[in-house]
Here is the input.
Amino acid sequence: MATPDLIRDLPAVDLARFGVRTADAAAATGARVAVVAARYNAPVVDRLVEGALATLAAAGIAPERTTLVRVPGAWELPQAALALAERGLADAIVALGCVIRGETGHYDVIVNESARGLGEVALATGVPVANGVLACEDAAQALARAGGAAGNKGSEAAQAALAMCGLLRGLDPEDSP
Here is the structure.
């Protein structure tokens, strides 16, 4: 859901006036990022991957520090993310997929359990995992979120992964004043 105009149009608050230490995505420079993408609904997911890879490149993540892993579907995303995190192959993970509601409850199982699994990977390993799995009512909604009118959620997931990677690196006690 888009941010309502009432909230979007509020003036920015100057939090810098408090003088506190902050951590941000800039600390993610040089990170190793894995993009784990489902093959299912590839015409949509490939557009998400394109958005994620473009965002990583624009953020200065070198191609040799980026790994693309393809899995059958959204269900398999958590297992691949866990393998990458446990083996120390990524400092951040971007999980991408697309689940479109069908005529049965299968949609709910896949959407909810893949999201739960991705969250568990992040919490268990400490490696940021951004959930870029689209949960859509129809193909038009999916395409709108994969580079169409609603933006590219793959790009947004890559931004979130880098932000969390930077935040976690910025919390390193060695960097504390």
In short: The two ends are 39 Å apart (CA to CA).
